[in-house]
Amino acid sequence: MKIVHTSDWQIGRTFSFVDDEALGALQAERLNVIQRIGTLARQEGAAHVLVAGDVYEHETPSERTLRQPMERMRQFADITWHLIPGNHDAHTPQGVWTRLLRDNAVPDNVRLHLQPEPVMLDAAHNAWLLPAILQRRHTLSDLTSYMDEATTPEGALRIGVAHGSVVGFGNGEEAQHNPIAIDRAAQAGLAYLAMGDWHGFCQINDRTVYSGTPEVDRFGTGGAGGGECVVVAFDGPTAPPRLSRHRTGRFVWRKFENVVLTSGTDIEALEHRVRAIAPEQPDTILAWLEVSGMLGVDDLALYENLIERRLRSAVTCLRLSGTPGLAAGPDDLDMLGASGPVRETAEALLAQVQAGGAEAAVAQEALQRLFLLWGEVRRTAA
């Protein structure tokens, strides 16, 4: 018997640092990945997909957002999808799960597990599902504890599914909310405990696993992986499950820290590094660059052209922290002409930069923009 384990779809998630076009693409892919999960289940011969919480980003999504993932799952009538609430979409009285049931929006092949009790998963394999149910965003009690005493038939294959923080894994406040005992699988006789909440793949022990989100949603995703699902194969109720990880994500998120630029060669190398992430599909790249350094006038213009214009147009998102400064001296003023108001303004700004003080940074930025604008005027005139 096989299942697909996934979690943290967070349909309807927003990303404040991207423009409207990129936001639309990211949100659409969080829906499109459902089709890839269904296709994976078919290819692997898995009749069941377990979604370990946080199907939705918010408890009050729009009507369209509420129904969209249901319609994606409806397309795979031969697969049964099992959903539980997470901390983002807890089972509250007027929450998403109540709305779905009230509006008759749940397809026949989708099962909402809203009570903490064993349910038959697969009769042919005597497999039973034990879901843990969050009824509020945060709880201090271990909602998987009931599994220890939950009754299933003799020789049953017991599979738990939960959303929370395994005690002893994670840190700080995160571990204090929605705690789950690290030995729950052993205590409850579970063949497998499918976990959600951690956005990268993480195997706690042989039988307790976080699948991670199927479509990466942040720079520096915690844990190894992200953008994948787990196929779990069972040889029996006591045999260790066999895991295989499968990439399902389309977008690739990368952060480049402490990038120091001092020459045109550095700039060209930076563009190459970003494009090399996905050379044939640069539109799948989200890159965050932490940039510093000092560049001459011509190299600064090259940076603006290659990075801020060309590269930004090629990738889905280019997030810049910092910017290279202008290393301009008196000799650079000659490109502005021997005299005139532009030259005089540049001389005044350069003097202010060289004098230092509180206004030096503002003067540096103004001088940088002046040179860039002057260069743009020259190129346009030519």
Give a nutshell description of this structure.
Keywords: Exonuclease, Hydrolase, Nuclease. With 382 residues, the chain is of the alpha/beta class.
Would you kindly provide a written description of the structure presented here, covering whatever features stand out?
Keywords: Exonuclease, Hydrolase, Nuclease. InterPro entries: Calcineurin-like_PHP (IPR004843), DNA_Repair-Maintenance_Comp (IPR050535), Metallo-depent_PP-like (IPR029052), Mre11_N (IPR041796), UCP033093_metalloPase (IPR014577). With 382 residues, the chain is α/β, with parallel strands linked by helices. The protein folds into three domains: 2-247, Purple Acid Phosphatase, chain A, domain 2 (4-Layer Sandwich), CATH 3.60.21; 254-325, no CATH class; 328-382. Helices cover 30% and strands 23% of the residues. The strands form five sheets. The chain has a six-stranded mixed sheet with strand order 4-3-2-1-13-14, with helices on one face. Strands 5-6-7-10-12-11 form a six-stranded mixed sheet, with no helix packed on it. It has a three-stranded parallel sheet with strand order 15-16-18, covered by helices on one side. The chain starts with a strand and ends with a helix.
